Amino acid sequence: MNAACDCGDLCPAVLMAGSLAYRASRLPAPHPRSARAESGQALLILIVTLSIATMLLVYGSTTEIERTLRADSRARNALEEAKQALIGRAVGDANRPGSLPCPDSGDDGSADLFVGSACPSYIGRLPWRTLGVGDLRDDSGERLWYALSPNFRDHPNAPPLNSDTKGTLTVYSNSDTLKMAEQAIAVVFAPGFALRAQRRDDGQELCATTGKTVERKRCAANYLDTAAGMRNAAASGPYIAARAGDDYNDRLAVIVAADLMPLVERRVTLELRNALLAYRAASDCACYPWADSGTDGVSDAGANRGRVPVRGALPQNWKPGVLPPYVVSNDWARVIYYAAARNALESGGSGCATCVDPTLTVDGVSGYDVVLVSAGYAGAQRPSPAMAAYFDDPENQDGDDRFVTPRSAGADRDRLYSILGAESGCAASARVLIDNAPCTGPAAGVRAVCQSASAALARCTCSAAAASMTRAPCVSALDAPACELAMTQLRGCVL
Questions:
Q1: What is the pLDDT of residues 436-460, one digit of tens each?
Q2: Handedness of CA 78, 81, 83, 85 (dihedral sign)
Q3: Helix boundaries (H) for 137-292
């Protein structure tokens, strides 16, 4: 055979089958025998030949499938690592929690610098250096691309970013009628190998994405594909996750509010809780501030329920450095409810006009000084001036000093945080453990607050549940059924 074989993994099968057939044709003529015997021998040779060829064809097909699966796994792993890096960056941002860096249009791994308060482009490559991850690539060796919702950019002069903020990106699945995500915050793309007219070299041409003449290797249109009339190279979408084919091979990872906002809210609410503790420790009255009963961020003397007075507190203002600046600039107090107990206010709450009970009650257990309720990320009715649009449980919006742990299990649910009063019992210590779970510390140890709460519960009926919160798996995650059971037992721990 003089022609070059271009059949990939099928060549061994073809060659072996041909060789066997050739050898069969060269066998010496058999001794005279019956026509039936000769026919049987020929049939046997044919069956063996076909069996070997079929086996090799199946082997070649299986190898190709395995290779495709491995390649897809590499791309999916890169996309997931990028997604988690972006979420971690948003949650940990010191000045604007929830925000994300601009895309990288220079292909140097660093987020673009702002033009005024805007990103130069809201689609570009993933800024892997800025995120502090490796140079992530898909199975084709291409770097990942990244689209960002403008209202989540990390410029300090951008509009306030809190749990009322919604993404602006829409992602479809396979067609223009099936939405995969609405109001997405960011999308990460694995571009795959170049298709048809896509050229990824140093030559310059007009880029359809930006309308500017740039190197082809910096133009999203040469990497990201189009399906059902939607272009993944568009700066603001809509985007599409379609089936792979001759004209489409992008793979996507999408970040939505459910991925991001619960973690951001927890961080913000806990920092507000710490700020309130610091306020009491530093104030002459050893008390908590009067609440903001309106929306101006300033204390209203005599009010124990409303919002945290982040713009001006009474009876004394905040000490410098106690309140994180982002709480004010991003209007977080508007989406977090605050209540303080009569006994924990100025002059023992003698001037309180709204107090109902001496202390606050949570799940039927009294003795709490402060309750904070975060509202969850925004639904269709938000932002809104109505409290009912923010807090789901009627007991948490009925204007008294009794609260319940939010009942919903959804990612957008309310969450309750508290500060214990001077009198602490089993229920109070259990609440500390609930508020701080999971208990893994920054150095992979157990945080001291969890250790002390667990020790305080050693003689309570929930001692076993408390101990489990400081051991694996519950110390680092609460997803396991045993951890959910332990949390339920802690919520009912009164003795």
A1: 889 887 666 888 788 878 888 887 8
A2: negative
A3: 257-282
